Amino acid sequence: MRNLILIIEDERLVRMLAVDVAQDAGLDTLEAANADEALLLPEARPNIQILMTDVDMPGSANGLRPAAITRERWPPIKIVVVSTCDDPRKTNSRPGAPSMASLTI
User: Fold this and answer.
1) What pTM, to 2 d.p., does this model score?
2) What is the Cα–Cα distance from 24 to 73, expressed in whole angstroms?
3) What string of pLDDT tens digits covers the 105 residues of the chain?
4) Residue 58: CB partners within 8 Å, gap ≥ 6?
């Protein structure tokens, strides 16, 4: 059985590239275009081993929210946080959203 990675990225072309790279590396992939969509997937697909999330994205939560929830509810899932920000710890967060400083991965 191949490892399954959930890729959360709002930019369609960047998400497509990430999926291609993951599949070329031998991983099975799931995709989500935002944090809200991504939060539904671990319940439906309990075999996810890796979550890769962008930080800045539209919707009710940034990409750190699914990372924080995943860390809390499914600790064995490995988490990769990516960002095009110079310093993702300074990312504009929504009120109550986790920050890089508060997310221990």
Assistant:
1) 0.80
2) 29
3) 689 999 999 999 999 999 999 999 999 999 999 988 998 898 888 899 999 999 888 878 888 889 999 999 999 999 999 887 655 555 445 445 555 444 544
4) 10, 34
Instruction: Give the closest residue to 102 by CA, choosing from 58, 71, 59.
Output: 71
Query: In the block, which residue shows the tokens 């710890």?
Result: 89
- Per DSSP, the three-state class of 40 is helix
How far apart CA 15 and CA 18 sit, in angstroms, is 5
- Report the C-alpha gap between 36 and 70 in whole angstroms: 13
Instruction: State the Cα–Cα distance between residues 62 and 10, nearest whole angstrom.
Output: 10
Sign of the C-alpha dihedral computed for residues 70, 39, 81 and 51 taken in this order: positive
